[in-house]
Amino acid sequence: MSASLWSTNYWPVEVVAEPHDHQPASLQEQVLAFLADGEVLTRVRLRDLLGVKNERLGQALESLEQAGRLRHTPAGWQRVD
Fold first, then answer.
1. In what order do the strands lie in the sheet with 76-79?
2. Spatial distance between the Cα atoms of 27 and 51, rounded to a whole number of angstroms
């Protein structure tokens, strides 16, 4: 008798989530979402919430500030809109 390398037992698979049609939010979109409703957050707090490197967050903040979407206040970063 020889042992087969292939099993004849198959387990049923169930789809439990629909595929997403949208792309994940960009870092800039995530920053804006955290700063919604007048929220003011420091760079350190944003970095902790987003789990990104300081340099990458700095680039996103600078880009948003230059685009007029954010401003830096003594208390932290704030949305302009």
1. 40-41, 76-79, 70-73
2. 10
Q: What's the CATH fold of domain 27-79?
A: Arc Repressor Mutant, subunit A (1.10.10)
pLDDT band at 7 (very low <50, low <70, confident <90, very high): low
Three-class SS of 31-57: HHHHCCCCCEECHHHHHHHHCCCHHHH
pTM, two decimals, is 0.70
Q: For 22, which DSSP code?
A: S
What is the domain partition of the chain in residue ranges? 27-79
**Residues making up the chain, counted from first to last:** 81
Give the number of C-alpha atoms closer than 13 A to the C-alpha of residue 21, restricted to the C-beta side.
0
Do the beta carbons of residue 48 and residue 54 sit within 8 Å? Answer: no
What pLDDT score was predicted for residue 81?
Answer: 84
